[in-house]
Write a structure and sequence with these properties.
Helicase, Ruva Protein, domain 3, 11 helices, Rossmann fold, 35% helix
Amino acid sequence: MATIDGLPTLREVINAHDLVAKRQLGQNFLLDLNLTAKIARLAGDIAGSDVLEVGPGPGGLTRGLLIEGARHVVAIEKDPRCIAALHEISAAYPGRLTVIEGDAMEIDLSGLLTPPVRIAANLPYNVGTELLIRWLTPKVWPPFWTSMTLMFQREVALRITAKPGDEHYGRLALLCQWRSDAKIVMHLPPEAFTPAPKVHSAVVHLTRLEAPRFPADEKVLNRIVAAAFNQRRKMLRSSLKSLGPDMEALLDSVGIPPTARAEEIALERFCALARAYVERGA
């Protein structure tokens, strides 16, 4: 069967290399190359960018990124069974694909990518959120990436993009929206994957902000948000009591009703509370 890039179909690749998806690695493969090319297009104009991909598996999205003109793709794959298949793609695109075998949580990316850098990945379900948080909390901002186009379980995607009053609104939404513009750009049903997961999936596109959306000390903001959402059903005057005796007065000073709950408060108000907390010397 002819493919859009002249390489074997992904089913043929999986059969040739015996790449049965492993649940313990969070693997669910996308086998439709037209679909992976569409996801690559959702990453934006990648022709002048290096692209970091984590968990390429048999290389469906990898091929989409290369077809769509990525300057250079760095693919990090933990499963040694997939490496040979990825090297076959590298041979078809000389100088444009670097395959690294290892754990993305442990690999030092410095020197591997040349700006501008985009991240695009069908992230393994078991480490997806952890990787996202790591990329959003570098020691120095702005980070090495300009945008991220990432596949998650649908519930995680909803948590990333949720607004105040939404049942999915919480710490992840605040972190993502404090430092990026985040939107869901594609929904995928379970049957799009092999094997089919028990949940729906979604692709989220995040574009970094050059500075956080509202000024706030990162550590203080994280501390306040954590306390607020760790007891999200309680009123803020109760859930934030552990942060100091004057928290109710601080809430009033920035226009937050002390009787409100965390899920009702917008990012801007949380940032104002963090600034007031620092100014009060709390």
